[in-house]
Amino acid sequence: MDFLKKISGYLKTRTAVIAVAILLLGGLGYYYKNLLVVATVNGSPISRWSVLSQLEASSGKSVLDSIITKKLIEDEASSKNVSVSAEDIDGEIKIIEERLKEQGGTLEAALKNENMTMEKLKEQITINKAIQKLVADKIAVSDEDVENYLKQIGGDIPKSVPEAEFKSQIKAQLQNQKFSTEAKTLIDSLRAQANIKYFVEY
């Protein structure tokens, strides 16, 4: 009889534990439902996995390449003791805000329009600044470069724009051109030298 009582007590305890576990799982499932279900249509759920799988199929390669490139740049910057400070990032954000303000816009509106968060913007600025520092010696533009460019295009300096300002704009344009070229060269070189192993083919 004592043995039967013990068994009965054990079964009751086990049943209670299972019931509590089911309730907890059910509660967690409801609380974190957005991790599993992203929407319902007439009561029929659409799983997060179905969305992610389609996104992976359509954009997986470009996203993976972007992540790989970011990692390669971070590693190269680290090996060259190149760092991007909070001041660097804040300074660039301030420049962006000023440009948008001149155009009658705001950074908040621009981020919303691009479906981008401030965190993502800072991440992009960090990578961009790291590349700039890595290729800094190759993107310098001298006053002579500006003069040669003006001779090549045979253009006159507009009377509506001060000469110094116009030449400053040309200098920035030439720097951007050099940066685009050198950034691509750097990334291509890093990818060629890296040991990249793909486990999923897109």
From TrEMBL:
Native organism taxonomy: Bacteria, Candidatus Giovannoniibacteriota
Keywords from the UniProt entry: Isomerase, Membrane, Rotamase, Signal, Transmembrane, Transmembrane helix
InterPro entries in the record: PrsA_foldase (IPR050245), Trigger_fact/SurA_dom_sf (IPR027304)
GO molecular function, one term: peptidyl-prolyl cis-trans isomerase activity
SUPFAM superfamilies: Triger factor/SurA peptide-binding domain-like (SSF109998)
EC number: 5.2.1.8
Keyword Membrane attributed: yes
One Pfam family named in its UniProt record: SurA_N_3
PANTHER family: FOLDASE PROTEIN PRSA, PEPTIDYLPROLYL ISOMERASE
Protein name from the UniProt record: peptidylprolyl isomerase
Catalytic activity annotation: [protein]-peptidylproline (omega=180) = [protein]-peptidylproline (omega=0)
Transmembrane segments: 15-32
